[in-house]
């Protein structure tokens, strides 16, 4: 993937060593109140549960009207820092901002981008303490994506899914949860989840995660339209989606598979959801709660 000339995001915070990599100020919180974005994106959707139990609490004010959209996928890149992983994360996050700003603009709304916090080992978020062992995650309480870039090595070595586009998929998936937060999907989770048994909660968790995979595919569709993909990139992304399927993880860790305990979806489900977004580029095709 030719990410080198992507616009760098100013929304990356570095907590790996107390530095200030790319950090921007926190934006005003956002809440949707029945506007055009809900009608266009989440009307008729059911609402799901986050399997990591860290996607809670949505608050904020009203949505602002749309402004002019930046030229997607382009712009003067920032000078690379000493850590190429940090530069990569900033570039990928910038590309997600351009994608979702364009999608929201077309629906008459303004996209409020998340922050992305880089950490090593453990991190404190508004959703509580977390460790790198849990993998990348999104906390809706502070609207941050949290990432230990060592996960990229794990994705390559342990999961057998190397490559820049595979790593980009990981970030785009977590940003997909932010989109779910902005569009009100998570806001309705609490009351519904309290009425569900564990098996039902798991099933709805899968649908929520598959939708984030589909949203990641929408990002990939845009990147492809910018002519930034190289031969083999799509296969990298699909391989990553498959590798983190619940069945694949359970086979590696348990030696057997328990479908009723799935919280993210099988390898086949995750690959299919990512492919739908990648092929269509249409968020309306990401209604994983309808099928």
Walkthrough of the structure:
- There is one protein chain.
- The protein has one domain (about 10-285).
- The protein is of the alpha/beta class and about 290 residues long.
- The chain starts with 11 loop residues before the first strand and ends in an 11-residue tail after the last helix.
- The strands form 2 sheets. The chain has a 4-stranded mixed β-sheet with strand order 1-2-6-5, with helices on one face. A two-stranded antiparallel sheet has the order 3-4.
- Helices cover about 40% and strands about 10% of the residues.
List the helices and strands and how they pair.
Elements: E1 12-14, H1 36-42, H2 84-106, E2 115-118, E3 122-125, E4 128-131, E5 137-139, E6 144-147, H3 150-157, H4 164-182, H5 189-193, H6 198-225, H7 233-243, H8 246-253, H9 267-280
Parallel strand pairs: 1-2, 2-6
Antiparallel strand pairs: 3-4, 5-6
Helix pairs in contact: 2-4, 2-6, 4-6, 4-7, 6-9, 7-9
Name some characteristics of this structure.
291 residues; alpha/beta; two-stranded antiparallel sheet; 9 helices; 8% strand; globular
Summarize the structure.
This protein has helices spanning 36-42, 84-106, 150-157, 164-182, 189-193, 198-225, 233-243, 246-253, 267-280, and strands spanning 12-14, 115-118, 122-125, 128-131, 137-139, 144-147.
Helix content bin: 40-55%
Structural class: alpha/beta
User: Strand order of the main beta sheet, please?
Assistant: 1-2-6-5
Note the gap between the termini. 32 Å
What is the overall shape? Answer: globular
Strand segment count: 6
- Radius of gyration, CA atoms, in whole angstroms: 18 Å
Largest sheet: 4 strands, mixed
Element string (H = helix, E = strand): EHHEEEEEHHHHHHH
Strand content: 5-15%
Mean pLDDT: 80
